[in-house]
Amino acid sequence: MTNNSSSPLLETVPGATPPGDTDQHPTHMGVAWHYGNPLTEQRHCATGALVDRSHRTVIRVSGPDAATFLHNLLSQKLDDVPDGFSASALNLDGQGRILHYLDVTKVKDAFYLDISAVDAESLVDYLRAMVFWSQVEITVTDLGILSIIGAEVPDVGGEFSRQLPFGAWVRHDVFVPRGALVDVAKRIIEQGIEPMGLMAYTAERVRAGLPERSLDLDDKSIPHEVPALINRGERIAAVHLDKGCYRGQETVARVENLGRPPRLLTLVHLDGSAPTLPTPGTPIVMGPATGRQRTVGRIGTVIHDHEFGPIALALLKRAALTSQALMAGESAILVDPDFIPAEEQSQAGRVAINRLRGSETQQ
């Protein structure tokens, strides 16, 4: 089920370089890591950058019951969305822990789900196991994704396209049969849109606080630990807060209304002078270097950013967010101040409970 074939753009776009030994991870394999100058490539976002994301697996769910079938399984509201609707979604377990993180797009009467190739097989197995009497068909397609960041999508062909928010940018995704990837990419580049490797794309993903499940989350992660996944205001994220009746929804509702997550996914800055940078999964400890330390989190994606230098995503306990004494391996780390909540969201359920307790005390 995982996408074992390399993108044809690795052989046809000048300078295309696959991940090196220190960059290799299953979520990075199969596409160009950079095209010769990754830090310069990241700057292309300001004028238009093309990213080969054909390493993701695209799944088609069709049939008369496709909308209600997916609506009942995923965290996104999908039962009555219009043609062209696009958003992210989660598949949770019974305790509300994140099993799959995917993007979903409706095209006419079908839904296209795209997900990291390392998670595709388990997602397809789960969907097929849940069909029962639903009239749906689940197919793994041969579509690849070419993403354009920082520019409008030119008329270059492909099966269909969509747009999704991506940090400071809008990401335009063009879904293309794998056999046509080279031709479509060539037409995009001819429009003046520069190739950008997955390294620069990953730096932008980290800056946006968007996780790669197998890199940045663990088997205890719940949606509210990742603020970028929760609908707020006009932002359509992966978790729709006004729908229920899907697996794990009780945890989402409880944390939203009564509590707060014990950890948060944050952007951290790494000490670039350290002999080696930490790798995903490295524990984060808090405390003086020569004194007692305790583990307060874990490092996820580590990447070099063209402005910030080495940065990473980290799952951290709330008590550690403002600490000046955090270490991951040999590197000192500091949480980006923009990722430290200025104040907690007001939980309607907690306010109601406090009001009730206050009235009981007065009696």
From TrEMBL:
InterPro entries: TrmE/GcvT-like, YgfZ/GCV_T_CS, YgfZ/GcvT
Record SUPFAM superfamilies: Folate-binding domain
Entry keywords, A to Z: Transit peptide
Region (Disordered): 1-27
Family matches, as Gene3D superfamilies: Probable tRNA modification gtpase trme, domain 1
GO annotation terms (biological process): iron-sulfur cluster assembly
Family annotation (PANTHER family): TRANSFERASE CAF17, MITOCHONDRIAL-RELATED (PTHR22602:SF0)
Protein's recorded name: Glycine cleavage T-protein
Organism from which the protein derives: Corynebacterium matruchotii ATCC 14266
Lineage: Bacteria, Bacillati, Actinomycetota, Actinomycetes, Mycobacteriales
